[in-house]
Amino acid sequence: MQVFTSTYHPGSAPRPLVFGRWLVRPLAMTLLPVMIVALVTALQGYPVLGFLYYGFPLGMGIAWVWTWYVLHTTLATIIVGEETIAVRSVWQQAERETTSPNWELLFDLRHEKAHLTMSLGLQSYDLSLNQWHDADTLVKALIRVRQATRG
After folding, report:
1. What Å distances lie between residue 134 and 13, 19, 29, 131, 140, CA to CA?
2. For 27, how many CA atoms within 13 A lie in the half-sphere containing its CB?
C-alpha cells in the first residue's frame, strides 16, 4: 500500500483552522463587490445600511457554501493498494479520528503530460500532477493498478 499526498494536504491542522484558511479567498471574492457597491452608493449620498444588511450575510453564506464544497471535493490523499484505490478529501483528512478508507476499483485512467484523469467507481477525478508530491511514482502506481484490474 502506497500513500500519496497533494500540496493541499492539511497536515495536522484541525478542521476549524483548515476551513478558516480555505475561506479567506472566497470571502474576499464575495465581499469585495459588496464593499465596492456600498462605497459608491455612500459617495453618491444614498443610504447603504439596507444594502449592507443583506449584502454581507449573502456574501458570507455564498463563501461558506463554496468553501465547504471545495474542501469536500479537493483530494488530499490517494492510497494505492494492490488492485484498489482509496481517496480522501481535504475535509476527510482534517478529521481527528480518521475513518477507514473507502476502497474502489480503478475503471479508467488517462495520463497526459501534466494531467491525469481517473475513474473510481462512479466518480471521476481530474488531477494536476504538479499538485502531487512524488507524481511520477503516483502515475506508475496507478498504471500498475489499472493493469492488474484489466487482467
Report:
1. 22, 26, 33, 10, 10
2. 10
Q: Is 122 left (phi over 0), alpha (psi -120 to 50) or beta?
A: alpha
For residue 50, give the 3-state DSSP assignment.
helix
| pLDDT, tens digit, 9 for 90 and up, residues 10-45 | 988 999 999 999 999 999 999 999 999 999 999 999
Crossing angle of helices 15-43 and 49-73, rounded to 10° = 150
Q: Give the global pTM.
A: 0.85
Mean pLDDT by 10 residues, the chain (151 residues): 92 92 96 93 92 92 97 93 91 81 89 90 90 91 88 60
Residue 81 one-letter amino acid = G
Contact between 103 and 86 (Cβ < 8 Å): yes
Give me the amino acid identity at 114. Answer: A
**How is residue 32 written as a grid cell?**
469585495
